[in-house]
Amino acid sequence: MKYIFWDFNGTILDDARLCFDILNEMLIEEERPTVTFEEYLMIFTFPVEAYYAKVYDLKKTPFKVLAHRFIDSYQPRSLKLSLHENAVDTIKHFEKMGYINILLSASEEKNLEEQLKHFEIRHLFQYVLGTSNVYAKSKVQVGKDFIEKMNIDTKNAVMVGDTLHDAEVAKELGMDIILFTKGHQHKERLQNYKNIDSFQDLIGKI
Asked: Which CATH fold would you assign to the domain 2-14+83-202?
């Protein structure tokens, strides 16, 4: 069997601008300097707490408070967004080629399932792997547990994501990575890895 592990936020769902908007709204609430979109793409990282530490005073407002505030604003607004162009057709293409499509996200599972149902794409994935809370910790352990449970040979797997963290996850899981440059990190940061500017570019790279 052949497998593709897909990231969701920023990779399939076009949500970088929304996350940027909410970041600035929260920075204004905290009376902190705002950032430009280019700056956001250069500072966004995982774990999210490390990214928050770059722009917030976590001694004044704890990360957990900020994380819940973000999700409360993000989740309903995310349902008004769009999926990246050609994402659905590309996933369907690989399904027809016999690949098992798996969604691996740092998002909390209930929120993730709500988004997939809303965008009517849940059926595209044989498995959906999320996390148990809203703190967007690493998805490495979630992936490792699944791979062990399913006895997957990761030589037959590839991951598609949009951040350096996705590259780190893929390395930890023992699979190749292809990074999409229209997500949450600036293209300049992704140059050391295989990358694509559109989903159509993915066909032929896997």
From this structure: Rossmann fold (3.40.50)
